[in-house]
Amino acid sequence: MDLKDKILSSYVAFENEMDMNSDIHEIRMKSLENFEKLGFPSKKLEEWKYTSLNTVLKNDYSLFPNKEVSVDLADVKKYFIHDIDSYKVVFIDGKYNSFLSETTHDTIDVCLMSAALTKPKYKIVIENYFNKIAKQDNLTSLNTAFAKEGSYINIPKNVEVQKPIQIINLTTGSEIATMMQPRNLIVLEENAHVQIIERHQSLNSNAVLSNVVTEVFVARNATVDYYKIQNDNLNASLVDNTFIEQKTNSEVSVHTFSFGGNITRNNLNFYQRGEHINSILKGITIIEDKQLVDHHTLVHHIGPNCESHQDYKGIYDERSTGVFNGKVLVAKEAQKTNAYQQNNNILVSDKANVNAKPQLEIFADDVKCSHGCTIGQLDDEALFYMQQRGIPKKEGKALLMYAFANTVLESVKIPEVKSRITKLIAQKLKINIGFNL
Amino acid sequence: MILKINNLHSTVDGKTILKGLNIEVKAGEVHAIMGPNGSGKSTLANIIAGKEDYEVTQGTIELNGENISELSPEERAHAGVFLSFQYPVEIPGVSVTNFIKTSINENRKARGLEDMPAKDMLQKIREKSELLEIDRKFLSRSLNEGFSGGEKKRNEIFQMAMLEPKLAILDETDSGLDIDALRIVANGVNKLKSKDNAVIVITHYQRLLDYIVPDFVHVLYDGKIVKSGVASLALEIEAKGYDWIKQELENLV
Q: What is the ipTM of this complex?
């Protein structure tokens, strides 16, 4: 039985635990039908031309891991940004772990999706927002069909959340292969502000496939800083489907740091419904071995006078592969749009490869849209310059790569996240640079 | 003897650039190397610094009596060679301060020393940036990125001041400098001169030599030193160009 059949046939068991009379279940059923029709994406689809899931889909995944595995804080602490006070929503093998978490209902809601989907208190919010901007495509539909657990975050009007919220999904590898479908919903009312850090981490080398869907609704004047840290084991794959809807005067930035995993696919979608909206999409990818990182971004400029800034940097060693597909859609009404897209890549090895595709579809006539893409090697002149100043070639290379990625780090607003990322970069580049990163 | 180059021949991309060059530079001396475009001046600078694109086919380069022709660029730097680049490279993302700290500590590491204590480093940076009249804000900017021509050259000499090399080669350090910047840069170089180190100034023009007065002036032409003299030779070249030297050579043949 292939994975698709296995998933479809497991649905009866899954829904048995759900409230089958709820509106949510209606949505789940429709999504299941959709997935049944579409199946998993293949390379025949334009959107998946450079990224094949075939090898990943061959694993015999456990869909609902049931073993209770205890995890020591000491073993997983390193996957948290632990030197700051923060809210935490932690899942182990898809199940909420109250010991590692710190949730709240005090003014704001930082809690569980399972609660939001079932308790009457959240009914209106769920009705208004759940599955409203998630695409009805293959993998998002699959997630929606099994939507049950994840993080639910609701920030009321005028609330500036003082500490970041960490969403951590750990998989213990208690099964040979585990498939996860985390589902997050984040709603910000007018003038609210929040910072979010998201991480998916497997704790051993068993195979993991996480198919995550996150919907983020950002009302007028609200701001979100979102950091995604992807530095997983070589057998862990991730498909991150994030959908963000912004209203007038809102600002959202998403930084994606992709330092490892088997296949990492980021589908990051922005919908600008209003005016004077700013969307910032940044990423640093540093990979080696046979790893693949695929960034598919979409910024849909729907209203006028809005901005988007994309800046993705990639460093590829050994036989790794990078994909960047940046789509900017400017609707006819979206006059005075200012859309900027930059994608720069360094190939460290002859066997690494990068597929870069800027995709601009512009229907308005008074816009500023720019895009730039480079694929190159380290600059020999710069290397000689550094060697001349006594910096050995190896350190010089690392320093150049660090410098290359550094422009993306400048906009990271949480100092502890910034220092963690710089450490991860130094680790990835196997260097000890003579100054404090 | 700081530098001794003996019968140096070199090629780049199969093309012969230096054709038997000899030069001796003693401690405490300033040498100027002049010459028309394409005579091999920058090649010489890059070869002493160890740039890999240039192949030494014959001859030796000795620094303090030790043959350095086979050393990597960083090893030559550790041995005390400093090249002030004609076109300093921009490195976005690394500040001037972090770059010079890395550079100093790598040089110390090569000599088996610990990192320079932060306090000493700061003190030194303060002192040397004052010498070159460099604004502190400038030190936190990305190396050479968006710097004016003058700022880039001043930054080169600032690094030289920080590293205190045995042999400093200034490759067209005067190009792109206005008269004030020229004065500051020259003043910096003069302050760094001592009886233990040596400076080679590569230039097209006499202008810089008004400020950094050379003990010897050499004319490089067609891959060889064809004429050497004292400071007055530079003035003569300024007044008469190079044609008379070329003429002298032809007459010799």
A: 0.96
